[in-house]
Amino acid sequence: MLQKIIGLTVRDVRFPTSLEQHGSDAMHTDPDYSAVYVVIDTDCGLKGFGLTFTLGKGTEIVVCAVRALEGLVVGKSLQDIVSNFRGFYRLLTSDGQMRWLGPEKGVIHLATAAVLNAVWDLWARAEGKVGPSYQALMDPKQIISCIDFRYITDVLTEEEALDILMNANEGKQQREDQMLSHGYPAYTTSCAWLGYSDQQLKQLCTDALQNGWTRFKVKVGADLEDDIRRCRLIRQMIGPSNTLMIDANQRWDVGEAISWVTRLAEVKPLWIEEPTSPDDILGHATISKALAPLGIGVASGEQCHNRVMFKQFLQASALQFVQIDSCRLGSVNENLAVLLMAHKFKVPVCPHAGGVGLCELVQHLILFDYICVSADLSGRMCEYVDHLHEHFSSPVVIRNAHYMPPKDPGYSCEMLESSVQRHEYPEGNVWKIENKK
Ligand SMILES: C[C@H](O)[C@@H](O)CC(=O)C(=O)O
Ligand SMILES: [Mg+2]
Which stretches make up the Mandelate racemase/muconate lactonizing enzyme C-terminal domain (predicted)? Predict the structure, then answer.
């Protein structure tokens, strides 16, 4: 059986999270967590599920972009794709007409991520593997063959990447066993979205502490006095030895970021996330330099377009924590490139997750990073947000504030059909009711 791809469907799935201010921050005050959900059908009945994450309005634009890519996918066999996955990545990202819409950024790249995530899911299912985490990608040469090194060979060649993976062969089994028994460390963002009241913040923090959480992220950036009050409150609740991070979601200019975060230094944040425009590499470098004496690092990546941007952030020492995103970059293929570059620059990877399905997807990437690339947990943790997991057929499992390795074959992207139907925009029942209000 060739596993020929015979169809691709794409759906606009939205959750009305803005009603309760879940996910709110200084720039995104009313996010409706949404997914562009892709299903690939094959001639043997096997399906691949993929998605990318959006915030509500505009999801239909990404749906259109996926439709524009459809012709490059349907008709191919899975074997053709994975035997030259780098070539297939290039086919999607370098189409002579569509690349004008990016290249490798914005709506077209989100669409590429959704499609490629579905292909990775299909591949893992076809092989009966829990992947694309460590199990599906054990052969270093095969891993390398999935990465498009164009534009990054000045910092990472294929040979260097292969060396990194070969060096990590030692101790792989122990690390895999360690992950299976203890899981990968996580931090929570669920307690302190910007729209939450102090009362809510306190309750969620108390619950999280009881459930073993030791690392917390707080949204900041709208009002300095309010930030000082909320950060003091949360620091008081979690005590001096737990970890606190702050996230401004691109709210400030460079100088403003430095002065604002300096005022918040008293609560001892480990990092300030997205202090300014996600495209301002040199601005991030200036902020990093200014905040280093205060012991505060800079984290960024959830809106970093592609591997080229990450390359420059690393070259410019502009961030101290790399926040890969499973749905912003060009799927596993491009995330692999960033994991390897981050390893070369010795910058820890602390992925962005949450949203719709990002935790489900990114768990594969962090396991791969630890077992096959970095072999190191110091300074590393993965974001966790406690929303919308119930809509997935293999939801993420958290135990004692750690991601436990997934067990089902695939890339954990499959959503429950009943959830998709109810939340499809605008015809789903959830939206029919909301729109009538
Ligand atoms: C709009 C999103 O909820 C955003 O605030 C998420 C984010 O910045 C994070 O999880 O980090
Ligand atoms: Mg963030």
Answer: 198-294
